[in-house]
Design brief:
Helix content: 25-40%
Order of helices and strands: EEEEHHH
Strand content: 25-35%
Largest sheet: 2 strands, antiparallel
Distance between the termini: 42 Å
Number of strands: 4
Radius of gyration: 17 Å
Shape: elongated
């Protein structure tokens, strides 16, 4: 399982551990991933995604999973999140003309 957020695409970054004597050694900064069950209001379903804690705060700020997915670009979403976004767009498209 990759260490990548399914909604924001955030992954591991690299940097240095810097000692007191200023010796630099390589290290990885891993994202703070947590499994979250997210509710889609339009689809009426719950989805289980591994997202960062920062993405969870962003979801609350933007107004939920549906609003976040509609605004997000496909390049940063995981295949699972892209599938949810396609289902959401199809559901909204069929509701709009009626």
């Amino acid at each position: 399982m990759s260490r990548r957020c399914e909604l924001t695409g955030v992954g591991p970054m690299v940097g240095h551990n810097v000692s007191h004597s200023n010796i630099k050694t390589k290290r990885r900064f891993l994202p703070a991933l947590s499994p979250a069950t997210l509710q889609s209001d339009a689809l009426g379903q719950s989805y289980r995604l591994r997202i960062t804690n920062a993405a969870l705060r962003t979801l609350d700020f933007r107004g939920g999973l549906d609003a976040f997915l509609l605004k997000a670009g496909d390049d940063e979403l995981s295949p699972k999140a892209q599938k949810i976004k396609r289902q959401l767009k199809a559901k909204l498209a069929e509701q709009a003309p009626a």
